[in-house]
Amino acid sequence: MRLVQKLSLAFMLGTTAILTANGYLRVRREVALFQADRVRDHDLIGRTLGASVAAVWRSEGQHDAMALVDAVNRGEGGIRVRWVWLAGPDAAPHLRTDAAEIAALPPGSTVTHIAPDEAGEDERFTYAPLRVGDRPGALELSERLDSERRTTRRTVADTIQTTVILALVTTLLSYLLGSFFVGRPVRALVEKARQIGRGDFAGPVRLRSRDELAELGREMNATSEALVAADERVRRETAARIAALEQLRHADRLSTVGKLASGVAHELGTPLNVVAARAEMIGQGDVSPDESREYARVIVDSAQKMTRIIRQLLEFARRRGPRKEPRELGALAGHVLELLRPLAERQGVRLALEPCPATHEASVDAVQIEQALTNLVVNAVQAMPGGGAVTVRVDREHARPPADHGGAEGEWVVVRVRDEGVGIAPGDLGRVFEPFFTTKDVGDGTGLGLSVSYGIARDHGGWIDVSSTPGHGATFALFVPVEIG
Q1: Contact status, residue 165 vs residue 22, Cβ threshold 8 Å
Q2: Interhelix angle for 449-459 vs 366-382, to 10°?
Q3: Staple 125 to which of 48, 96, 211, 248, CB 3.0 to 4.6 Å?
Q4: Would you call 62 helix, strand, or coil by DSSP?
Q5: Residue 123 Ramachandran class (φ > 0 left, ψ -120 to 50 alpha, else beta)
Q6: Is the CB of residue 97 less than 8 Å from the CB of residue 127?
Q7: Residue 221 contacts by C-beta under 8 Å, 6 or more apart in sequence?
Q8: In the structure, what pLDDT confidence band is assigned to residue 351 with cuts at 50, 70 and 90?
């Protein structure tokens, strides 16, 4: 229910309650006044007519006095009058009050009661005592209460009609005024709030009033202006952060390229020697045509091998923007191991990719994921100065992200890099992903590799988990969602 409707309904209910209470009190007051007027009329008629009847009785006799009473009954006032004896053989039966009580009243006074008549209908009876001679008598005035009931019903009907009309009028006025003073400004504020929710901070809300809603509108306009400035600042800071991250990752790639240089040089040395020797023999003319063709084939194969090695190194070192596409992570892991194999062999480390019967695809940037895996594998190789084995395994798991990552449980592709090195001290496990944190000797590392890898995982909607037992190696697990938009 809308605010204006609620206010109108509340106003209608409150007004109706007040008018109903006022109507109830008004009806009671009108009925009480009417009853008091009828009692007063009875008293006035009883005393006046009693004095007249007594005077006629004394001067003209009983017959003329009764004729006066009959003349009064022939009127249209609705009050019936009769003479009653209070004592004696012809005392009136069925009096509506005690005859002794009436006789004890002082002259000129009356007594009024409401009692049922012979038919069982309520009537108002008034007795005005008169003493004519030695016998006590009284004038009995009776009136049916029909007129009083009609008056009460008419008063109630008028009150109800007035209450309904006033309630409807006040409700209509409250709805119209509420729509103008409340509904229209609230709709403008709601539309402004929706614009802010959509990220549209232009177009200030304009309210001509000077009430609290207009003040709220001015505050929303000020908030929108602040959000525009904050949004622009966030854009600039985000762009700067992205540029810094890209520079950091590129620097990390170049650092890794430097580490790979010696291994690549070794890989290029053998085919270069083969090419040089075969070319020298061909140049000296000491070979037959068949041997020349064979040597040319060997030279081509060696050149292709060197080209492939150099291309892999250039692709790894080249700076480029993120390009997410469905890729098989097992193939990416194998490519990384092939690239790092010369470096690992120089340190007496074996690299192995555990076979997996199924393929595990995810929407990733292949270059960035290769950089992250390269950092993890290089870190594992450097953790084994005495040699050993680094094992990489690709799986699909149902897991819940860590608390700092957030999100619900789901399906993830996980790449685990396990080494047999010295392990990580428990006090350092929580800091291994901090930028520039390293436990290696000076010159062996920058402390950026794991931090860059973790940032790549977070950019892909995943994370990196680490577990280690000192002296028994460490395992780094790179999680990425199965599906990424």
Answers
A1: no
A2: 150
A3: 96
A4: helix
A5: beta
A6: yes
A7: 204, 205
A8: very high
Domain ranges of the chain: 3-153, 242-481
Mean pLDDT, the chain, rounded, equals 77
Q: Which residue has the tokens 């614009």?
A: 195
Please name the residues in contact with 59: beta carbons below 8 A apart, sequence gap of 6 or more. none
Question: In this structure, are strands 388-399 and 349-353 parallel, antiparallel, or unpaired?
Answer: parallel
Q: What is the phi/psi pair of residue 143, to 5°?
A: -150, 130
Nearest to 292 by CA among 279, 305, 301: 279
Enter the tokens of residue 459. 């950019």
Q: DSSP for 368-390, please give it.
A: HHHHHHHHHHHHHHHT-TT-EEE
Domains 3-153 and 242-481 share a fold: no
Q: Facing residues of 116 across strands?
A: 122
Which residue type is seen at 101? E
- Cβ count near 129 (within 10 Å): 23
Class of the CATH-defined domain 242-481: alpha beta
pTM of the predicted model, to two decimals?
A: 0.43
Please spell the DSSP secondary structure of 353-369, one letter per residue.
E---SS--EEEEEHHHH
Long-range contacts of 305-312 (CB under 8 A, 24+ apart): 305/271, 306/268, 306/271, 306/272, 309/264, 309/267, 309/268, 310/264, 310/268, 312/338, 312/339
Q: What integer pLDDT is reported at residue 269 of this predicted model?
A: 60
pLDDT computed for residue 311 by the predictor = 64
Q: Among candidates 476, 471, 433, which has minimal Cα distance to 455?
A: 433
Mean of the pLDDT values across residues 329-355?
Answer: 88
Question: What is the C-alpha separation between 476 and 482, in angstroms, rounded?
Answer: 19
Report the CATH number of the 3-153 domain: 3.30.450.20
Helix, strand, or coil (residue 27): helix
List pLDDT tens digits, range 114-140: 877 666 777 888 888 887 767 788 888
Q: Could you give the CA distance from residue 377 to residue 371 in angstroms, rounded to a whole number?
A: 10
3-state helix/strand/coil string of 94-105: CCCCCHHHHHCC
The whole-number average pLDDT for the span 237-243 is 75
If you search the block for the tokens 């620097």, which residue do you land on? Answer: 251
Residue with tokens 């009769």: 82
pLDDT tens string 369-398: 888 898 889 888 888 888 899 999 999 988
